[in-house]
Amino acid sequence: MKQETFKKLVADRANKRAVVLATHLETGDDRLIYPDTENDPLVEDARESLRDDKPRTIETDDGPIFLNPFNPPLRMIIVGAVHIAQPLSQMASISGYHVTVDDPRTAFATEERFPNVDIVAEWPDDALKALALDHRTAVVTLTHDPKLDDPALEVAIRSPSFYIGSLGSKKTHGNRLDRLAEAGFTEAECARIHGPVGLNIKAKSPSEIAVSVLAQVTGVLRQTNPT
Question: Do 176 and 82 have their domain in common?
């Protein structure tokens, strides 16, 4: 790898920027391709490699080129240190997410209840702004309390987060959408929220609900259109 390419790649990784390293397998020439690159014949292949999180070799008129994707790390931000958050945080960690649990109610957000994950005890909108949500971030609100969930959703909706989900019944979610509309959010913006959160698998226990949530997050990440 050329030194210039290596330095740029290191900087992109530090800045959590998605990039693909393209290496010509016969000549060794390499370059970086970004998903927003224009007029590059390999950009669509690069985007697909980033989307799949898998390297691939493509054949071109100039010979074979190896595409190695470098995505920012996956993150899950869970708002609400409730019972469902406990198994969800552990399952998400096992699945490769860097998990942060935010809840200003410090009696709930403790290391004993949430081992090996980051704990933040800030008001959700302040916490999410500080966490700088990106396109590799999933946000899940679980408090059932509009004073906590709504501020988090207001930040998440207007962020690049690839997934936003909120716990609650259909009636609860309908009321939530009404409040967001009154706050100035459009129907298209509100449609980004998966509510009730999770796949409809008739889950009952906190662990089963966590399974349904993580499955839906995975489906959105991999673009399988889960319902």
Answer: yes
